[in-house]
Amino acid sequence: MSHPIETYRVYAIKYAHHARRSSANFIGGDPHDVPMPLDYFVWAIVGKERTWLVDTGFDQAAGDKRGGRKIIRPIQEGLMALGIRPDSVQEVIITHMHYDHAGNRELFPNARYHVQDKEMAFCTGRCMCHQPLAVHFEPDDVASMVHKVFAGRVDFHDGDDQIAPGISVHHMGGHTAGMQVVRVHTEKGWIVLASDASHFYANIQEKRPFPAVYNVADMMEGYRRIYSLADRPEMVIPGHDPQVLERFPAVSRDLEGWIVRLDAGPR
Ligand SMILES: [Zn+2]
Ligand SMILES: [Zn+2]
């Protein structure tokens, strides 16, 4: 007799916001050129016995360095609102090493980190000699991850890997060389945390790639593969789209506009 796969609660926690126009969100621009802001999220996968944090965001000091990326609520506040103490987090999955996904580097002293081989090679190698690629990385975040490697706190993944029953990572590349997405089993089926493999719903739905990119062909191929990993297209969660907070139910009324429950399915 086969056992049912464990299901998880999955939360999207917004922590920052950045105003920009739609022309900045697509290769080739956007003829409508309307306001199209980015929200910034981390995600928490909560199982019966263990919690996985997906990405670690950035703090206000890092936001200030990048011209007006405003922290709405530090990620530790969002986690605490869910009863998750940062020092209790034991597992962190890093989708990629960009500053807005791999900051807050001292906040999780007891965590192991899951990263793709290709991402560490990318952010410590010759590609970082090229300013358009390097600009999205914070050298101190990268150095901190190197220290974690030497401290025995990093689990490397090469391609697709199971993290736990019902949780797996899948290498996509495209946005960065080692970009990975996270597939999670929920009561409503398989969802995919796409992170920056698709910043907005529009990138993946309309197959219009985001301009911050290492390899456009892999990004386009990723859009197809991401859909194939989710039970339904609406179960793919983009990395920066404010609509996520409208499409999914808030955890409770006081967390409206801040933390939503992805495993409940779109409302
Ligand atoms: Zn990114
Ligand atoms: Zn990002």
Using brief descriptors, characterize the structure shown:
267 residues; alpha/beta; Metallo-beta-lactamase, Chain A; eight-stranded mixed β-sheet; five-stranded mixed β-sheet; 8 helices; binds zinc ion
In percent terms, what proportion of residues is strand? Answer: 15-25%
Query: Overall 3D geometry?
Result: globular
Q: Helical residue percent?
A: 10-25%
**What is the residue-averaged pLDDT?**
96
Overview of the molecule:
This protein has 267 residues and is an alpha/beta fold. It has a single domain, classed as Ribonuclease Z/Hydroxyacylglutathione hydrolase-like (Metallo-beta-lactamase, Chain A). It is 22% helix and 25% strand. It contains 8 helices and 13 strands. The strands form 2 sheets. Strands 1, 2, 3, 4, 5, 6, 7 and 13 form an 8-stranded mixed beta sheet that branches. Strands 8-9-10-11-12 form a 5-stranded mixed beta sheet, covered by helices on one side. A hairpin with a 2-residue loop joins strand 10 and strand 11. The mean pLDDT is 96.
